[in-house]
């Protein structure tokens, strides 16, 4: 169950953008519109609508979530050859209208609940390698850092001239591997193989994916959320015309009618006071829907 998704320096997004599924304080229709989980103290909305004018970043927000999903599932099996690695995906592109952001990595963070435990997973990367990665678990409401991975400061200038090592280099005993390029921290609550798995993790592959693939059962349970719990985001990968919004086929017919009316009113640029009188739409008729406007700088790329 997704709680919050954050992205920064991705395509048209220069600053951090947040998609939050945390319900507002309004108690109207709370029983039908929201759900509760013992792993999180706030109510969560069951579905969300992303709306806004053309070129405001709606598609890019979905593409960001889609890339994070796709990268996690495919990075381990992607070949280490430059141009064929999962990290080289054309979707991963920084904000281009600033020289500083063009050279900076892209940041993703997902907060979610899986098997009654809340997790906070973050990933900072560019199209060459991963700069930072972390996983924090809240099994009893208290944070437990399971692992942290950071690119060494002196590695940034040299990374283009260093040959990208492969999994086979590590298995053969090579020492010039990812643990030489990153500093690692493993929390005491993370069990199973750790350092050995760090040694065989390529610099362009998430440790969460590698550890889950190569035998850490504790991290495998977290990875399974990306494989089975984050459904629907891959439909955004082929292009913005195939954006999947909150599994709309599962919405009740009444909700679909209200949603269409809401979108039609928005396109007419009507104010909030007149929107409630547009067609069949009334705010109280929207079970399970929260309108989240994706915003970005007018100077940004579409």
Summary, kept brief:
The chain is an alpha+beta fold and 302 residues long. Helix 7 crosses helix 8. The longest helix is centred in the N-terminal third of the chain and has 17 residues.
3D structure, described in words:
A hairpin with a 2-residue loop joins strand 6 (106-114) and strand 7. Residues 159-163, 165-177, 233-251 and 266-302 have low confidence and may be disordered. Helix 7 packs across helix 8 (217-229). This protein has 302 residues and is an alpha+beta fold. The chain folds into 2 domains: 1-247 and 289-302, no CATH class; 253-286, no CATH class. It has helices spanning 30-33, 58-74, 99-102, 167-171, 178-181, 195-199, 207-213, 217-229, 253-267, 272-275, and strands at residues 2-8, 17-20, 34-37, 40-45, 49-51, 106-114, 117-125, 130-138, 144-151, 182-186, 291-293.
Name the overall outline: globular
Low-confidence segments, ≥5 residues, pLDDT <50?
A: 159-163, 165-177, 233-251, 266-302
Radius of gyration: 21 Å
**Largest β sheet strand count, sense and barrel closure:** 7 strands, antiparallel
The total beta strand count reads 11
What share of residues is helical?
A: 25-40%
- Helix-and-strand structural type: alpha+beta
